[in-house]
């Protein structure tokens, strides 16, 4: 008996021995988990409390790091221990902090701007080579401090003009703020201000953009490798975030320029806890013209306003507004105007030190109107687009190797493409309104940024887009939906409010990978699929504010782009020089285009003009940037090609796209002579835009029309221009509160007559009178800006 | 809204500068150009056939005088057209009916023209046109301040009723002393009725007159095809080179076999007024 008992004891002991290792392993796991702690916090600018976006947080001992998110927040989970944590950010002094991690630690850091330090070449030890190390490729962050040293048209620093100097980005020309990215048309770029979309970024037809540089905190352009949290456009995302407002002290700054002036007021509401910022900008050429008795008046204005408050370390709230408008009035009788208005409410919430969330409610509206005051022919034409979004984004910092992002976005849009109404009793016009269109846009995404090992980092994810075109709407059926001459409606199908007309479901995979070849050298690869369900109804090269937007629906399919990009990145001489070389290929299905001679304005049967086809573009982008020293700047070169093939356009033959520019060179340079003077220069060269020219002419009644054979068969002459500027800086050590800066600039220094367009007409003399028998024709080239000097005074106190 | 370009240019606030440039253009095969008209008034029927030429050619385009031209209607009638029957020097390329006739509203007319062994055909239906009730005239103050043409600053006012129950398309021609006039050399005066109400009370003419002038207004009806043609033609004539609007392309036509131009069947109404001080 005893033996068996002993045996039983032994068995039990044996069992325990078997279980124990499992227990230990389990304990070890949780023990390990318990040995890991999270370091998190916010990184801010020491002078004004602005949270900094994209700051690199790096631990050299672990060769691991992270980057602050759009709200300045970072979180990194590490084994317990004591570490050096390095904080680095372009334009700010590098900081290393020793942190003792025995439990979760919140470390909020304040960085000091580097712009206050100007001396001989500044060498930084162990500088982070972010452009090589970071996973994100095909993204350009604008360094606003560097940009301010460069020449600006009319002395007004413009984000969009600087974006147009990046490789892979082509300006649509003078007279517009539109740009093309990697062989994509101007409507394929999503422009966001504090997460709200802007539908037309131009003021005064591109002389200025809607972005007042004084109030911009951060500006990032994604050309490829687009993260899963973005969607809705095929070619790029321009994400602009405004400043939150100095929460330490009250300040006023502004500038008085030749064409427009701006002023900005910011300050704390409750020191270190909440702040506000208000900024306004207006052009005033019209006021002078009014005084001079001129009848034609044109002006624009922008207002940006924001309030933010930090309830506690886990909850922050932001409310931001933007309103801008362009107004043109001709002699009291004819005028037009357009504008964007946006409002964003955001709530940052930290569920834990590892789970960050942002909830946003966003409203945006774009509208335009045209009015003719005439007793007999008076009318008013209006159009608008309104949207309301709810976005819920989460970031889960799992550990040093994994960071999960996921979220849900829901947007409702109402398109009001046009209404014409008489504006006088005796007007010959009657009320006509194009139907409203409604859409519900859902997106669900998830992605993980994973550090596989020292050399390889991956970001993989997927975005699911569900787009619904809904009623109230009457959808016409046609005998032949592509016949735009004899339009025969066979039926009208009525849809009630919110009733589904057509739903499109698309899966958008996103992938980015980085391989570190060695210190300071990496190779990156990305693939993304983007889907666009909001289509610009424009058939020209350059969009105008009068173009309307349509949702995907019964007749219009979503446009789908697949882009692959590969790049090589290398830094030289301690990260003073950054070199990047990227190759991309983009293929678009269902690219939206229009039949030859399409009537796109005020057409009740607009769907008969839609022609969707294919677009292909590929290119190589090279750029070298010098970031330090007295002389800084960049040289960029892009070689690319973009073509389209659409049935019903150009007889179905492939043609060179409007936005194709074979060679583009951009050079920017800034030189700090001494404390007082900084000089800047910009040079841009681009192959001419493709254009359609006649191959003959003929007589019809008393007219002499051209014979057209091929679309975009010719090129305009090349576009090139040099701008220079000189900035007189305020004295550094002055104890005066008021700081003033003078900027002198010359746009188009050698007065190049850059072609704006070429058109044909009957031969006329300079007064516009016909010469000869009225049968000969000539070609006329239009060019916009000659040499333009300007002076601007910027102040701050 | 057909042409945004001039508005945009003014809007930019700066005078856009221009200069004449010479283009090195590829030469293309010549196209056959056919211009034809059948109306409900005697003496207004004709067909003109010519060829397209290189962009920089001078003078008149070459006319075709050996084509076979027949116009028929859907009631079985056939009208033979002969080339320049009265032998006028400036009517080369024009084909007039051998036997005078006038078209009938509601009928569809068909053109068959044979040139160099190639057959070109087109069809158009004649729709009715509204009556011009009356004309009046007055001084246009803006034009009087800065007249384009000497002492001409009187404009003619048109009074008509626009039928709201039908979809109508119109083409207008303005004459000063029997001479067809346009204000700008590229102007075509045409309209659809989508945004028009019933009372057309005093729409001013684009042409200016002085006392002693006889002003005549002709209103033609257009079929949908005709309206599309003139709309395309106006767009082509005033194209901005594809900058803000679509790149230029050939006007849609009802002619077959690669010919350019249009064969038009229209009803026409006309009124006249003499301008007095």
The largest sheet of chain A is: 22 strands, antiparallel, barrel
**Mean pLDDT metric of chain A:** 87
Strand content of chain A: over 45%
The residue ranges of chain B in which pLDDT falls below 50 over 5 or more consecutive positions are: none
> How many E-type strands of chain A?
51
Q: Based on CA inertia axes, which overall geometry of chain B fits?
A: globular
The span between the termini of chain B is 36 Å
Number of strands of chain B: 17
* Computed CA radius of gyration of chain B, to the nearest angstrom: 20 Å
Largest interface, by Cβ-Cβ below 8 angstroms: which chains and how many residues each?
A-B, 89 and 80 residues
Mean pLDDT metric of chain B: 90
Biggest sheet character of chain B: 8 strands, mixed
Give, in order, the helices and strands of chain B.
Answer: HEEEEEEEEEHEEEEEEHEE
Query: What class would the helix/strand composition of chain A place it in?
Result: mainly beta
**What is the strand content of chain B?**
35-45%
Q: Please, what is the oligomeric state?
A: heterodimer
Q: Which shape of chain A, going by the Cα principal axes?
A: globular
